[in-house]
Amino acid sequence: MIESLVEDRISRLDGQAAHALALVLPGGRRIGPADADVVLRLSSLLPLRHFATGNVGGLAHDCVEGLLDIEGPMRRVADVAAELMHGDPTSRSAAANPLRRTLFSRWRHRKASDARQVQHHYDVSDEFYALWLDARRVYSCAYWPEPGMTLGAAQEAKLEHVCRKLMLKPGDRFLDIGAGWGGLLLWAAEHYGVRATGITLSKNQHAHVNRLIAERGLSDRVRMLLLDYRDLPEDQPYDKIASIGMFEHVGRARLPTYFAKIHRLLAPGGLLLNHGITAGGTRNVQLGSGIGDFVERWIFPGGELMHISHVLEVMAEQGLEGLDTENLRPHYARTLWAWSDALEAHLDAARRATNERTVRAYRLYLAGSALGFERGWMALHQTLASRPSGRVDEGVLRGTQCAYPFKRDYMYRR
Fold first, then answer.
1. Which ranges in 149-301 belong to alpha helices (H)?
2. Dist CA 265 CA 35 (whole Å)
3. This prediction's pTM
4. CATH 3.40.50.150 is held by the domain 98-412
5. Which of these, 25, 200, 239, 270, could form a disulfide with 29 (CB 3.0-4.6 Å)?
6. Which ranges of 299-355 does DSSP label H, i.e. alpha helix?
7. Could you give the CA distance from residue 332 to residue 277 in angstroms, rounded to a whole number?
């Protein structure tokens, strides 16, 4: 009966997936073509329940737990996973009780909880991340204005894109919230002459960036703090603020607090560049087919995605005027495939730096995320916003009220 169930499920797959997938059951019985691109090799029958229901997140969990091995190129694995799913993973409805969802979000995004969640992910191993990130360890969506660019060049193009959007200039007080391994912080300081402050909750990142600051002789105008955004002093406002890959960790219930804090930190007329992953669906609280549960368990505990329409609404409610929003969704798909390819090329070193479970989880996470951005299940939005100054008689155009010139050509001029 089990074999017939598996055979029926494979025969129902659409497109080329039926010719690309085979299962090997405990004991060696093979179901599917002999030359399949992707093979699921089971050491237990338990994963079959996830296979039958299209729960690809559950299959990924089974793989991390060692109940099955997945063999084949990760791009083909991702394609097969998409075919196995039942329906659109963005169609999952929001929780029936909004109050309960809000209370839960607030509870798991307390200061101590956020610190633990960030350290769970970013303090896995600096050596591990160095294997598949670029030399600057920029762990966010790259920008590919030219198709032949390397990952490192595309990440530098992203850093430049952010700095240009913010119109950074020498002497600006610049804040990088969630500064990671310091890519943007140091780029802004070295290329634009800003006085830069970065914050993180990752102990590894904090130590790494402070070493770089000392080595490059930037201690007089660059600092990296181990600090929660809620604890940032507000006595000296910043001219420009960047939040790159950060607000996904804030939580839906804390988002008004987050943007209200940024509003208080930003000088009147100053600019904010908010860059982060957004939901592809307008109402799903996470991706369905078990994907969101897998990411919550193994990768980003506490991560919450919101549609860009909700993000813009909350920003506006906290006094931040949206100026320009750009969707870089396919850029992130390409970034993730670059990371995936690099990790695949260094699997043995990755296992030495971490452990087998972590390597399995990240192999599936990177490829699955690339798939999600390709299919539009997630997006990546850069939103430029300002804290209006209230002065209508400044700027080239009357009523500008901020540094933004209300035209885009400056962002792309070389």
1. 151-165, 183-192, 203-215, 255-265, 291-298
2. 59
3. 0.89
4. yes
5. 25
6. 308-317, 329-344, 347-353
7. 9
CB 57 within 8 A of CB 289: yes
Three-state SS for 199-232 is: EECCHHHHHHHHHHHHHCCCCCCEEEEECCHHHC
Q: Which of 131, 239, 243, 271 is closest to 177 using CA atoms? A: 243
Give residue 72's region: left, alpha or beta (phi > 0; psi -120 to 50).
left
Q: In this model, does residue 223 exceed pLDDT 70?
A: yes
Fold for the domain defined by 2-84: Nonspecific Lipid-transfer Protein; Chain A (3.30.1050)
Which of the given ranges, 92-101, 158-167, 395-404, has the highest pLDDT on average? Answer: 158-167
Q: Could you say which DSSP state residue 92 is in? A: P
Residue 229 vs residue 93, higher pLDDT: 229
End-to-end CA distance of the chain: 65
CA distances 403 to 146, 165, 384, 391, 412, Å, are 29, 10, 11, 12, 17
Mean residue pLDDT across the chain: 87
Ramachandran region, residue 106 (left: φ > 0; alpha: ψ -120 to 50; beta: rest): alpha
* Domain definitions of the chain by residue range: 2-84, 98-412
pLDDT number for residue 54: 86
Residue corresponding to tokens 């402070």:
210
Q: What is the pLDDT of residues 73-127, one digit of tens each?
A: 999 999 999 898 887 777 755 444 565 656 555 545 555 555 455 544 455 678 8
- Which tokens in the block code for residue 97? 């009780």
Q: What dihedral do alpha carbons 82, 85, 89, 94 form, nearest 10°?
A: -160
Same fold, 2-84 and 98-412: no
